Every structure is written in structure tokens, then in C-alpha cells.
Amino acid sequence: MYNYHVRKRRRTRYTYRFAGIVIMMVCISQVVMFVMGYGHAYKIGTILAFGFALYGFYLFINSFRAGAYDIDYEFRDDDFIVHTKWGDRHYTYGDVNDISQVIPENENIYSLIHISVKRADYVLPFSYKKEVADKIYTYVNDRVMAEKLENMENDQSEH
Known about the structure:
This protein is an alpha+beta fold. The protein has helices at about 10-35, 45-60, 130-159; strands at about 1-5, 70-75, 80-85, 85-90, 95-100, 110-115, 120-125. The strands form two sheets. The protein has a four-stranded antiparallel β-sheet, covered by helices on one side. It has a three-stranded antiparallel β-sheet with strand order 5-6-7, covered by helices on one side. Strand 6 and strand 7 (about 120-125) form a beta hairpin. Helix 1 (about 10-35) runs antiparallel to helix 2. It starts with a strand and ends with a helix.
């Protein structure tokens, strides 16, 4: 069994919230001024301002997603659990659609593991921890492949 903790910075969440609010306020003020009768010649600018206001709203709402907070991964023999601020998600290795490891040229600096499960994607960053990334990738990949082979054998035996 392997556990891995991915830390997220609180400042990043607050920055996204602040930027979203500022963008919304500036753009909504442009839209309100247009509705009140000022600047009729700026219809295209008002439409663009409305689009940017929606983008600011997107930034603000996205700062509350589960991936913006710390995530704990618990890889067990039969399944794995993703612990987030908004609850735990349990997956079996058969649910994994794709698993890949990204290793850059200078592999000692960082590496990434990407796990695609159902409609969720999880990226595990490893800074200066290549050995840990290799162990976790090998552990999870072996279980995913074993589960896929078992499912293929069961499908062949049914036919």
C-alpha cells in the first residue's frame, strides 16, 4: 500500500478568487454603464466585457473545486482512494482508463503520473522524488494491467 500527499497553495486559490472578482467587477461596470445609456457606440466592447465577466465568474467558481485543495492518494491492493476536501472517491483498478508517466529530459527534477478514471483526471506531481514516482507508477500500472487481463479472460470464457 502506498500513500501520497499532493500539496496545493492557499495563495493560489485566493489569487484566482481575487482575480475573478476584479475581472467581474470591471466588466460588469461596463455592461451596467451600457444598459444605463452611456456609450451606445461601444456595443462590441460591451459584448466582450460580458464575456470577460463570465470568465471572471469561471475563475472564481473554479477556485473552490476539489483539485484546488490538498489531495491524499491511498493506493491499496484492490482499489485506491482519493481523499479531497469535498469527500473521498473510491475507485477500483478496473475503473482506470489510462495511466501514464511523464519523465522530462532531466528526470531528477520532476516527474508526473497521470491517472484517468471514468470522467476524472488526476495528476500526481513528484518534485525531486523520481524513485517514489517510479514505485507508485509500477505498483498502480501492475494492478491496472492485471485487472484488464482478468476482465479479458472473463470475457473470453463467457463466449
